[in-house]
Amino acid sequence: MRDRIEFKTPDLLVVLIYLVLVTFGWLNIYSTQSDTLELFDFSKKHGTQFLWAVISIFTAVVVMIISKRFYPVFANHIYIIALSLLILTLMIGTEVKSSKSWLDVGLIRFQPSEIAKFATSLALAKLLNKYGFKLNTIVNWLKTIAVIALPMGLILLQKDWGSALVFMSFILVLYREGMSGWVLTFMAFTIALFIFSLLFPLIWIISGIALIAIAIMWFTYQSKKMFARSTICAIVILVAGIIYKYASGNDVEYDKFVTLAMIAAIIAGGVSLFLWSKKIQWYATVFFFCSTMLVYSVDYVYDNVMKPHHRSRIEDMLGIKEDIKDAGYNTYQSKVAIGSGGFLGKGFLQGTQTKLNFVPEQSTDFIFCTIGEEWGFVGSFAVIALYLTLLIRLLVLAERQKLPFARTYGYCVVSIIFFHFAVNIAMTVGLAPVIGIPLPFVSAGGSSLWSFTVLLFIFLKMDSIYK
What we know:
The chain is mainly alpha-helical. Helices cover 70% and strands 3% of the residues. The chain has a 3-stranded antiparallel beta sheet with strand order 1-2-3.
């Protein structure tokens, strides 16, 4: 009786948005089936999606009935089950489109990677809220990274890059739980360097990094006189190196030679600052060295780690190569479909790009182009507004949680849904490479809809126990 808690119904706004998105998704999946007029034809995708919608809603009810103590107590058990399914998939899984990420159980085929998303969310929430656990030691960081990296690595072995990248969204959860904002800055800077290295000459990138390193020196050291002296030393080293290059006829490539000269110059500047100020602060030198190494590693990663179709999609997105007949075909046709919808759209079941199947995977990864063509700008804006309202509401619910476990899990839910929503729409309009990310609650796919439902309603269960 002392543990008796007054329950309330789940947050009605979130449930309403969920039902609207599921229903709207089902209607648009039906619209992509150009050769059927039956609304409940279970041999078609919209028919099986309807069955999965019913199963998902029933699962949501079951999740709401289960005791609130079940999820934190059995979080690690669910996580271990998810890892076991991922390992089993590597052993006996079915390969679909070069990705071995499906398990066949009787008449049902599902992706264990979808289960791993909410399982990892539960395990991460439990780990981060252990008594005395803080992200301020190497051991704790290694534990946290391991929880995220284990399922991510297994999914990468399945060659499912899209699902694996979803686990990167947990960085937002770690930021909320106390991780330094410098980590986010570092990740953003790393992505920017990768993109710039593909778009611009190497010497431009290295020069820009050098200027940033000099700025760090300027603002780090209080004595501007000392900084001026160290800068003179650095310039002397740099000029001497360039003169040596041309005077000796050295065969080192120009870009690489200038890079080495800049490294030597900045190190010389750091050493001279130490000699004059008796303080060793290597911020600028470490920044420049690490950034330069990253820039030089881009070519290796791009040529040896990424698959040819990944490179083709990135090059198409960045405009390096335009190939609307192969790598860029899906995105090109998607943009044509969305643009042809205009302001109000062509009308339900009236989309020509949709009916003639110009866009492959139109009911799954590219479902948003069907929305844009048939419902136009108004319909697209309404869908985006629904997702933003859902995410904002979930953030409000997460922040009001009394239990840290529930708050952390709530942020995991927001991060995963936001990643899928943002990347999927960016994919269809050419702002992100095509990596196979479904639109939550809308795209066709039974395991995707079911897992998103479980992910969401576990959090609604945690929230429903409070007044």
